[in-house]
Structures are given as structure tokens and as C-alpha cells.
Amino acid sequence: MSRIKACFDKLKADGQTALIPYITGGDPEPWVTVPMLHALVDAGANILELGVPFSDPMSDGPVIQKACERALKNDVTLNHILDMVAQFREKDNETPVVLMGYANPLEAMGYKAFAEKAQQVGVDGVLTVDMPPEESSDFLSIMDAHNIDCIFLVAPTTSPERMAKIAEYARGFIYYVSIKGVTGTATLDVSEVADKLALLKERTDLPLGVGFGIRNGKSAAAVSQVADAVVVGSTLVRCIEEHADRLEELPAALAGLLAEMRHAINAQDMAK
After folding, report:
1. Contact (CB, 8 A) for 17 and 210
2. In sequence order, what are the residues at sequence separation of 6 or more whose Cβ sits closer than 8 angstroms to the Cβ of residue 248?
């Protein structure tokens, strides 16, 4: 059983919603990434999303774009990200880790070479934003062979027919994008999200995570009413940017921000 499935199974049995934070690997300095990951777990993260920096992150807003720029200035590559996962696994062999990014770095390394190293260091899933299901057959078969879940996005504009197609290819969980546009913009409408998730649940038994537009405990708790997982990114990355000149304080600052969301989600879970 994969770590991702085991995590969701346990949370479902306990009546809890997963909390999935995102940070960009190597931002603002490579050495602080692993301490931040451990701090996020200590603050209540159930699954970690680690961003692979890319020069043209098309689905991301200005906050995460700047994070990618800072990481790339540090010469952080996909190999460095995998090394960070290996370092994280020295102390934590339980928390699932999902790499989120774009196809180009994976293609440059080679799918098989990536899968082999990713499996070796303990990567559990990969979300490649610009790889639609129709173009992922070879990639999916290689990831399946190395026990790495391929996670796909569903958008507000996705038709029910396409939802069914995505569900055929998806592994681990499905990531529902709660707003139209890039990360860190607009305000989510939870009732609209609930309607879309209802359609999606008719087409898959996989857990459903919701991201984009979640900024604080209130919005996290609201989403936890309708989703199996709450994904938060831009708010955390903005905190990282604000502490770029106080790196020693950064893990604790991130932990405090995530803990607020964890407590709000827990309170909502208990009220269900």
C-alpha cells in the first residue's frame, strides 16, 4: 500500500480531513527546505507538496513565480529536490511527499531515470501541471512500475465527461482547482466547489483535494466541509518571502501559520 493511500485511509477512519501544504524546494535557500518540511509535519501536515522550481510556472501566480525565481537563482535542480526528499526521509519515513511541477525537468532527466531515483529516495507522488492524461500514458506506466502515484488536476471548467477520463488515469488523489485562474488569486466559492466535487465523486473513489484560494483557517475549515484534503500554497510561500532575511525564524513562522489551519480544520471535523 502506498503512503498516500495509507494516509487517507487512516484519516478517513479517524474522521479527519488531510492538510497538504506546498512549498517550493530551494526557496529562499536550499538548506532551509528540509527543516521547513519537518516543521510543517509537526504543525499538522498530513501530506507534503514540494515544488520543483521551473522557469515558466504557467499555472502559478506572482507569489509562487517569485519563489521559483529565487530557487533557480540558487541553482536548484530536480536532482537537488530529490536529494532534499532523501534528507527528509532520514527522519521521517511516514509522511507522503508529492513533487509538484512541470514536465520539462522530468523530460530532461528522462522519465525512467527520474522514477528510479524518486522511488529510491521516497517520493510517493508526482503532479505534473502541464501533462494532460491524453499525453501521459508512457509516463504513467513508468510511474506505476515504480509505485509513484500520478496526480491530476480538475478545473472548474472541466466537463463531467472529462472528469471521468481524468479519473481513469489518476492515482493517489485528485486535485480540484477551486478557482479559475492562477494560484494566489481570487476568492473561492465553497458552494460551487461542493457542486463540482459531487460530480467528481460520482466518477471516482479516490480522495479529492481542493487547492487555490485557501488563505487562512476560516477558508481551510470551509473547504474541509466538502473535501477530503485541503491544499494550501501561496499563503505559505508568501510567508517564506516575508522571512527571507530571517531564515532561522522561518520554520517556526510556517508552522504557526499552518497550525492555525490545522486547528480550524480539526474543529470543523469534530462538528461534522
Report:
1. no
2. none
pLDDT digits (tens, 9 = 90+) for 111-144: 999 999 999 999 999 999 998 888 888 999 999 9
Whether 49 is catalytic is yes
Radius of gyration of the chain (CA): 17
pLDDT per residue over 203-217, tens digit each?
Answer: 999 999 999 888 899
pLDDT at 191: 87
Residue 57 pLDDT level (bands cut at 50, 70, 90): low
From the list 29, 42, 49, 124, the catalytic residue is 49
Please confirm, yes or no, whether 60 is among the known catalytic residues: yes
Say which DSSP state 179 is in.
S
- Among residues 27, 60, 124, 149, the one annotated as catalytic is 60
How far apart CA 272 and CA 70 sit, in angstroms, is 41
* Strand residues in the chain grouped as ranges (E): 18-24, 48-51, 97-101, 125-128, 149-151, 153-154, 174-177, 208-211, 229-232
DSSP-assigned states of every residue in 52-118 = ---S--TT--HHHHHHHHHHHHTT--HHHHHHHHHHHHTT-SSS-EEEEE-HHHHHHH-HHHHHHHH
Grid-cell match 532527466, residue found: 109
pLDDT at 184 over 50: no
Q: How far apart are CA 89 and CA 195, in angstroms?
A: 38
Give the domains, in start order, of the chain with CATH numbers. Answer: 3-271 (3.20.20.70)
